[in-house]
Structures are given as structure tokens and as C-alpha cells.
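Hi V.,

You were right to ask for the full record rather than a summary. Here it is.
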Amino acid sequence: MEVSRILAEIDAQIAKLQQARELLSGDAIKPRGPGRPKGSTNAPSKRRRHKLSAEGRRRISESQKRRWAEQRKAGSKSGK
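Predicted structure:
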């Protein structure tokens, strides 16, 4: 066998042994990402959704349409 091939096999074995050691010692355990860990008891409270009346939706719609009209007017005056 060539010396370079023997060295490559030894390096591969070393890498496997190091990986096994990390798993056994707990070094390989990485911290979790954001969020609650599994099994946590403090579940999020259910949020109440605010209901908008038909009149409230209508008023918001009308005021938004007025804003858009003003923007169109201002845009046409600027020379577009």
C-alpha cells in the first residue's frame, strides 16, 4: 500500500472516532433555534380577534379611497 493511501485511511478513522466522541460527550448537541422548546407547559394564550362592524369597514374603505384619490391628484400635478 502507498503511504498516502494509508494516511488517508487513518485520517478517515480519526474523523469517525472524533464524531463518535462528540456524540457520546454531548458536544455535538447544538442549541435550538427561536421558539419554545418541545414539551414546554406555558402554551400561548388564545387571542381574541377584534371584529369590525360593517360600518367600520365602510368608513375605512371610504377614507382609504380618498387617500388614493389625493395621491393620484398629487401624482398627476407633479408632471408624470
